[in-house]
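Consider the tokenized backbone below.
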């Protein structure tokens, strides 16, 4: 799969809070695990936080190539707190979803959806025309539940509730606690299977730290800490953090305890926070040296404070998890906290809990711990044991398992996003036009929009790999070439090459290629929409692969190829053989003319020709030297070998009514199999003549011919159809399924490959897979494919082949005939990787 992770939560204001630390830790572990499992991972960052990009990229470069870390560009200011930003916000959401769709994800993970109120984050779900399988980390629903506190501002309420509606569109939620999971199910009507508790953990750097005396003193002096201290790291300063009750509880501690300790609150302060909290402290009689506000503390110093504090207290009323409490526990601090929401899951000890709504309860628990050294030490021991139960590796594993399981249930397949800038801009403007309150854009706005779209198209770095299947779309002739096309197409669609989206295409009568959307859906077993297939758009960096044999479309396609090449598309064609040119006598006169037009066009408009064997590559190079000497150095000619695992070639199925009877007859006597279309070069005249001689000499042998009637063989076809041995010792099975063919291979005694010219010789490998011995004509390509694992014959007369078959029968009887058991062959997956490497497309698929 191709997994995209939106990491804006590690860039936004959240980066200094628990959400940012959670997002970074989970993402690192998810990326590592996804790569280990063979998935293709991309990351999305925003250019609105330039100072964060440089620190983030090195963290992930060890797993994700830098070209797969995409920087999203948004037009203008997009913080939702400013009502005047609405047009830019809606446009930016559309652009971001367009960019992500352009990356062709199988699944998108959003580290945090509720971003973008006070900063320029742009995160949305389902606002565009693109359907994207999405998983979102759910931290909590606190504003939704405590709306009287958090949703008083009309604009923020609208922002938050819009996010809630988007949240409901997601396929999968990663709840960070069981409490958050239950809230999503109970309050938002998610199905239980859609919400997974992945829990949380903390970075491995959070561990007890022993500072030397000098560093110890320097750190405490920096933050004006002069006594043993009670620490609270709230991760924010909103009302649920329960500062007033904590401050009052500390202020009302017995004088001897309060006088020996300081209350330290450590977190980034925003405008007004310090003044409000200082006022609360003064109201309850705390002196300035008894209540310390540190502001933001770097992680290395925070770890030291966790390790040095006498007691860590976590009085929050409502939490999605309570990450600071776990950080403190991992550093060996004695921790007490609220008995509400998710906090008990984190602390894991009932006698360490208090009622956060009761100042008395908070005060009494602090007194209990600070007055009882044994209790204090037991809490410290418990903290380290409890912290070890939480692991980012475990959380990431649960998340990745859930994505993989959810993806198997999804029906959303890839969607072409090959639009130009103007088309994308127009779509965006149409999509936001209907929304109430969105103002008309100015000329400056439109210019920013076009610029952002253009930048994102450039930044996406995902190109299109067009696969021409023009013949297969029209009709599956069930020939050898069609099997190759089906097999490689399936591999490409199942394992999208890194950095490319595979788009099957076809041309009608040499016109511009269309995307084969309906065919592809049917081919993959997905729902067919029957919408009209759209003409493709292409740009520099795209790759075109002529996989099907489409010589009949030339020279009409010349102009199309010329246009594609001029725009920077690399043109490659698979060449199966050149027999219509090298041996025109075996073909219709028109076939040779069509092939000449085809190869002439490829010589001028293709960048590379990929042959299916070295033997074909030799023929192509010789042809180019002879007829196109000026092009031979400009045109790359390479070769690869075909796969042979029938089960991965989208095999056709079905057995005729007489299949059982035929297979019984084949099993009864020595049976020789030939698998090839009936055409002049396949050697069938010699083959039939050889068996007629063998039958006359008293050999009780079967000849099985599997192949459709071809061209220029009318006399032979008539002879086969009326042969006295037909359905007795001669069997002609025309156009049978792959399922039936596999059974024929298993039942046969030996394969005879009598063809005088071939591009590859796939039946030789298919025979070897069934450990079927091989008799093959001594031609270069059969030597290339079978090597020492076949018995070779020469001559073109029936008696030549009959003599070779008799010799083989004697050798086989003595156990001296070559065996095919260890003949090398490759799978269609391996074959496809070789093909992709030749056209310089990464073979590491998603």
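A designed sequence for it:
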């Amino acid at each position: 799969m191709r997994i995209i992770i939106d990491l804006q939560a590690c860039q936004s204001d959240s980066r200094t809070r628990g959400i940012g630390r959670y997002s970074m830790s989970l993402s690192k572990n998810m990326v590592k695990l996804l790569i280990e499992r063979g998935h293709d991972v991309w990351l999305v960052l925003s250019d609105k936080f330039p100072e964060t990009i440089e620190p983030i990229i090195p963290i992930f470069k060890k797993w994700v190539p830098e070209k797969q870390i995409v920087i999203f560009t948004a037009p203008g200011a997009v913080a939702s707190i400013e009502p005047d930003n609405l047009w830019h916000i809606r446009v930016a959401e559309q652009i971001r979803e367009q960019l992500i769709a352009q990356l062709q994800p199988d699944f998108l993970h959003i580290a945090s959806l509720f971003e973008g109120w006070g900063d320029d984050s742009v995160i949305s779900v389902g606002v565009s025309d693109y359907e994207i399988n999405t998983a979102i980390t759910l931290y909590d629903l606190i504003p939704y539940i405590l709306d009287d506190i958090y949703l008083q501002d009309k604009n923020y309420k609208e922002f938050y509730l819009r996010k809630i509606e988007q949240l409901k569109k997601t396929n999968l939620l990663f709840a960070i606690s069981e409490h958050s999971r239950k809230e999503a199910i109970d309050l938002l009507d998610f199905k239980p299977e859609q919400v997974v508790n992945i829990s949380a953990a903390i970075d491995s750097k959070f561990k007890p730290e022993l500072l030397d005396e000098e560093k110890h003193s320097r750190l405490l002096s920096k933050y004006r800490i002069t006594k043993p201290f009670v620490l609270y790291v709230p991760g924010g300063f909103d009302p649920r953090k329960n500062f007033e009750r904590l401050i009052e509880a500390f202020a009302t501690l017995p004088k001897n305890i309060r006088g020996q300790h300081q209350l330290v609150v450590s977190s980034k302060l925003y405008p007004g926070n310090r003044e409000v909290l200082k006022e609360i402290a003064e109201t309850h009689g705390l002196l300035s040296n008894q209540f310390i506000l540190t502001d933001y503390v770097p992680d290395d110093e925070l770890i030291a404070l966790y390790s040095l504090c006498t007691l860590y207290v976590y009085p929050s009323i409502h939490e999605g998890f309570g990450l600071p409490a776990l950080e403190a526990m991992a550093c060996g601090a004695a921790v007490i906290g609220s008995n509400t929401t998710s906090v008990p899951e984190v602390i894991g000890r009932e006698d360490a809990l208090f009622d956060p709504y009761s100042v008395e309860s908070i005060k009494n628990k602090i007194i209990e711990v600070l007055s009882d050294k044994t209790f204090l030490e037991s809490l410290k021991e418990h903290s380290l044991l409890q912290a070890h139960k939480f692991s980012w590796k475990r959380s990431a594993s649960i998340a990745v398992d859930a994505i993989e399981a959810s993806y198997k249930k999804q029906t959303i397949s890839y969607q072409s996003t090959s639009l130009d800038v103007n088309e994308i801009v127009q779509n965006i403007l149409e999509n936001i036009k209907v929304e109430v309150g969105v103002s008309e854009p100015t000329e400056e706005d439109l210019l920013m929009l076009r610029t952002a779209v253009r930048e994102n198209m450039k930044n996406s770095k995902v190109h299109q790999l067009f696969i021409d299947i023009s013949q297969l779309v029209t009709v599956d002739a069930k020939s050898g070439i069609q099997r190759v096309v089906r097999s490689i197409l399936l591999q490409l669609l199942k394992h999208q090459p890194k950095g490319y989206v595979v788009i099957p295409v076809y041309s009608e009568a040499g016109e511009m290629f269309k995307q084969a959307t309906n065919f592809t859906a049917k081919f993959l077993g997905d729902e067919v929409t029957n919408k009209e297939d759209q003409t493709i758009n292409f740009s520099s960096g795209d790759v075109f692969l002529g996989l099907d044999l489409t010589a009949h479309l030339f020279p009409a396609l010349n102009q199309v190829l010329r246009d594609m090449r001029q725009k920077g598309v690399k043109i490659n064609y698979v060449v199966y053989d050149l027999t219509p040119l090298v041996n025109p006598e075996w073909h219709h006169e028109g076939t040779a003319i069509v092939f000449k037009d085809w190869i002439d066009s490829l010589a001028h408009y293709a960048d590379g020709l990929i042959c299916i064997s070295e033997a074909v590559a030799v023929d192509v190079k010789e042809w180019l030297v002879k007829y196109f000497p000026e092009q031979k150095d400009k045109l790359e000619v390479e070769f690869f070998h075909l796969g042979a695992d029938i089960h991965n070639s989208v095999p056709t199925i079905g057995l005729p009514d007489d299949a059982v009877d035929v297979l019984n007859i084949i099993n009864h006597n020595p049976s020789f199999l030939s698998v090839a279309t009936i055409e002049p070069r396949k050697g069938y005249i010699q083959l039939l003549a050889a068996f007629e001689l063998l039958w006359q000499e008293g050999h009780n042998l079967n000849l099985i011919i599997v192949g459709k009637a071809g061209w220029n063989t009318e006399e032979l076809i008539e002879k086969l159809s009326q042969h006295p041995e037909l359905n007795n010792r001669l069997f002609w099975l025309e156009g049978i399924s792959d399922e039936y063919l596999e059974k024929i291979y298993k039942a046969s005694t030996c394969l005879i490959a009598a063809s005088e010219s071939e591009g590859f010789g796939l039946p030789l490998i298919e025979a070897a897979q069934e450990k079927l011995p091989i008799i093959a004509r001594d031609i270069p390509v059969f030597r290339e494919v079978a090597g020492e694992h076949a018995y070779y014959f020469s001559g073109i007369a029936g008696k030549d082949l009959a003599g070779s078959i008799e010799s083989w029968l004697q050798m086989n009887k003595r156990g001296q005939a070559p065996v095919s058991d260890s003949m090398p062959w490759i799978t269609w997956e391996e074959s496809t990787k070789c093909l992709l490497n030749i056209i310089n497309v990464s073979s590491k698929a998603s």
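Residues 2-200+397-457 form a domain with the Rossmann fold fold (CATH 3.40.50.2000).
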